[in-house]
TrEMBL record, chain A:
<keyword id="KW-0472">Membrane</keyword>
<dbReference type="Pfam" id="PF00034">
    <property type="entry name" value="Cytochrom_C"/>
</dbReference>
<keyword id="KW-0349">Heme</keyword>
<protein>
    <submittedName>
        <fullName>Cytochrome c4</fullName>
    </submittedName>
</protein>
<dbReference type="GO" id="GO:0020037">
    <property type="term" value="F:heme binding"/>
</dbReference>
<dbReference type="InterPro" id="IPR009056">
    <property type="entry name" value="Cyt_c-like_dom"/>
</dbReference>
<dbReference type="InterPro" id="IPR036909">
    <property type="entry name" value="Cyt_c-like_dom_sf"/>
</dbReference>
<keyword id="KW-0408">Iron</keyword>
<keyword id="KW-0813">Transport</keyword>
TrEMBL record, chain B:
<dbReference type="InterPro" id="IPR000883">
    <property type="entry name" value="Cyt_C_Oxase_1"/>
</dbReference>
<dbReference type="InterPro" id="IPR036927">
    <property type="entry name" value="Cyt_c_oxase-like_su1_sf"/>
</dbReference>
<keyword id="KW-0679">Respiratory chain</keyword>
<feature type="domain" description="Cytochrome oxidase subunit I profile">
    <location>
        <begin position="1"/>
        <end position="475"/>
    </location>
</feature>
<dbReference type="GO" id="GO:0016020">
    <property type="term" value="C:membrane"/>
</dbReference>
<feature type="transmembrane region" description="Helical">
    <location>
        <begin position="250"/>
        <end position="268"/>
    </location>
</feature>
<feature type="transmembrane region" description="Helical">
    <location>
        <begin position="56"/>
        <end position="79"/>
    </location>
</feature>
<dbReference type="GO" id="GO:0004129">
    <property type="term" value="F:cytochrome-c oxidase activity"/>
</dbReference>
<feature type="transmembrane region" description="Helical">
    <location>
        <begin position="411"/>
        <end position="429"/>
    </location>
</feature>
Amino acid sequence: MKPAELREIDRPWRIWASVIIVSILAFSVVFGFLVLPIVQGRAAGLDAFTAICRAVGILPGSPAVKQPTSEAKAQPTTQVAWSTDLMRTFGRRTQAGAEIAQGCVACHGEHGIAADPQNPNLAGQSAAAIYKQLHDYKSGSRVHDVMTGIAQGLEDRQIVEVATHFASSARRDLDPTTAEVVDEDVIRLVERGDPSRGLPACNSCHGFNAGGPIETPTLSHQNREYLARQLQAFKTDARRNDIYTRMRSVAVKLTDREIERLATFYATTLSY
Amino acid sequence: MGERAVTHARRLTLAHLWVAFAAFAVAAVLGVWQMWARSPLPAPYLTAESYFTSVTAHGVSMAYVLTTFMVMGFGYYVAETALGRPLPLPRFAWLGFWLGIIGSAMTAVTIFAGNATVLFTFYPPLTASPFFYIGLVLVVVGSWIWCGLMLWAMLDFKRANPGVPVPLAMFATVANAVLWLWTTVGVAAELLFQIIPAAFGWNESVDVGLSRTLFSWTLHAIVYFWLLPAYIAFYTMAPQAAGGRLYSDTMGRLTFILFLIYSLPVGMHHLFMDPQQSSAFKFLQMSFTALVAAPTLLTVFTISASLEIAGRLRGGKGYFGWIAALPWERPMVLATGMAFFMLWFGGGGGLINMSFGMNAMVHNTSWVTAHFHLIFGGTVVIMYFAIAYAIWPTLTNRLPMSPRLQRLQLWLWFIGMMVMTLPWHYLGLQGQWRRVATFNYSDPIIAGWGPWVIVSLVGGIILLASALLFVWNLLQFHSARAVVATDLRPIYALAVHPPERVPAALNGFALWNVLVLVLMVAAYGYPIAQFFIIDAPEAIVHRVNGRG
C-alpha cells in the first residue's frame, strides 16, 4: 500500500480517537471541577467559587462539607514535637553535655549507670528517649520530686546536649550470674505479645529494628526495679506522658507477676 | 530464521520463566503460612517481624519477580515467534536478565536479613535498607532493556515489511512495553528523589503526600503490566487452542490501546481516602478508571465470540450448546474459562474499589487484598500457567504423555483461589483490616471472623498444592520423551478476517503516546505540582534497619 493511502485510512482514526478522548476528559473536568462542587457546595452553604477552589485543592476542605468549628482546647500528653531540625541536633557529643551530666552523677552514676536500681541507667539509651523524658519533666507532662526541678533548670539546648552525651556512653555490662535467664512465657510476650488480650509484642516498638515511635526507649540493660516501677506507674495511670496512651493501654493488661518477670527479663538480657 | 538464533531465544525464554516460577513457588509457601498466621490456629515461627518479613518477600516475589520475568520471557518468545525473525541484540536481553537476577538476589538477601519489613509497596516515611530499593531498581532497569528490545524488534519488522500489519501478539507485547515505560516513571521518581536518599540517611524528612502520589502513578498501571500477558493469551492463543478463529483482530488492537490509555491516569483511586489530593482530581481519575471496563468488556465479548466460533465448528448447537462443545480438556481453553469466571467476581469487586463513595467502606480492609488476589492471582496467574503449558513444548521439544495433571493443577488453582478469596472479601466487609500480623480472636466480634479465615487458609493450602504441582508439571516437560521438532508458530490464532491493511493508529503507538501525555498532564499535572507550590509539612524518615 502506498504511503498516501496509508495516511488516508489513518486520518479518521487520529481525528476520532483524539476527539473521543478529549471529550471524555472535558466531560470529567466539567462534572468533577464545576458541576459537582457547585451542587454539593450549595448544600454545604458554600459559594460556588469557594466550592470550586476546594474541589481543585487550592483551598483546604471538602466542597461537600462545611468546615467544622471547634471550641475544644487541645491538651497534648507531651509538648515534644519531633522535627528534622531537632533530630539534626542529636548525634554530636559535646563538652557542654559532659558538664551537664556531672549533675546527674548522684542518682544515675558516674558513667550513666545508676548504683540504686530504683533509678534508670542512662548510658546507651537513645538520645530521643532521654530528650523526650527530660522535656516532659520540664513541661510538666511527667512529674517526679527530683527530676521536675532539675529539668526546669535546663534549657532546650542543654537537654539535647545531655541526652546526646548519655546516648553515646557505653552501656552497663550484664551481671554474668543473672544473665541468660530463660523465661519462655516472657519471651513469648516480648516477641509475639498476647493477641487474646490485645497485647502487642514489646518488640513491635522496643525491639531492635522495630518500627516504633522515635522516642521509644531501649529496655535491655535497664534496671529491674526501675522498669517494674514504671510499668506499675503506667498501669495505675500515675504516669501519663505516653502519646495515645500507648504504654498505659499495654500495662493495664499486664499482671503484677508479668510486670516483675518482664522487668527481670529486660534487666538480664542483652539481645533485645 | 537461523536455527541457532531460535535456540538462543528459547534458552532466554526458559531462563526468564524458570526464574519467574521459582520465585512463585517460594512465595506460594510463604502465602500459606501468612494465612495461617492470621487465622486463630497457632502458627509456628510467628512474630510480628517474621510476618512482615514474609509478607514483604511474598509481595516482592509475586508482584515484581514472577511478573517481570514472566512478561519479559514471554515477550522475547512472542517477538521471535510472532514476527518470525530472530530477536535483535540478544546480548542486551541477557544483560537485562542478569540485572534482574542480581537485583532480585540483592532484594531477597535484604528482606531475609530482616532489613526490609516494609511490604512491597513504597510508602514512606517507613523505609527499608537502601539495598532493598536498589535491587528493585536493577530489576526495573533490566525490564527497561526489555522494553527497548521489544520496540526495536517491532520497528525492525516494520522496516523490513512496509505496510504489513504487526501481528497482534507482538502489537500487544509492545503495548505492554510502552505501558511499562510510562508506568515506571512515577515509582522511579519516587525511589530516586525521595526514598533512596532517605534510606541512605541523606534526607531526614520526606514529603509523604508527594511520594504516595508518585507511587499511585505506578500502582495501578503496574497491574495492567502484569495482566496483559493474560490478555495476549486470550486473544492470540485461546481461540487457536479451542480450534476456532479470533473474532476480530481490530478489537484486539483497540483493547490493548485502551489498556495503555486508561491504566495510567487512574492511579489516584488508590488514594481516595488520602488528604493530600482534592476531590475533583480524585473524581477525574475515577472517571478514567471506570473506562477500563471498556477494554475488559470488549475482550469478554470478542473472546466469547471467538470461542463460540470454535464451539459451533465442533458441532455445538443452540444458544449454549457451543459452550459444551468446546474442547475443555485442553489446558488453554480450560484456563480461559476459569479466568473469565474469576474476572466477573474480581472485576465486580474492582468496580466497588474504584467508586469514590463505596471505596470508603472497603478501604484498607481485607476486601482489597482479596480483590487483588482474585484478579491477579486468579485471572492473571492462571493464564500464566496456561501460557507456560502452551509454549513449553516448543521450548523443550518435549511433550508429556497427557495433560491430565495440567488440568488437575488448573482446577486446584481455580478452586483454591475461590475458596481463599470469597471469604476474604466477606471479612473485608466485616471490617477486617489488612496489613496486620494477628487478630485478637478473644474479642467477640473478631472471634466470628475466625472460621472464615480458616476457610481461606484451606483455600491457601489448595493453592500451594497447585503451585507445587505446576512446578512438577513443568519439570515433566524436561524429562518427557523428545518429540519431532515442533513448529514454533502455530499457537497463534488467525482472525476471521486476517488484517491486511491496518491504519498506522492500530499498528503503532505514536498517536496514543501523545494522548496518554495529554491525559497524564491533566490527571497528574497539578496534583504533583502542588507539592512544589504549596509548602507541605514533611514526615521524619523512619528506617526499619536501625533506630531513628
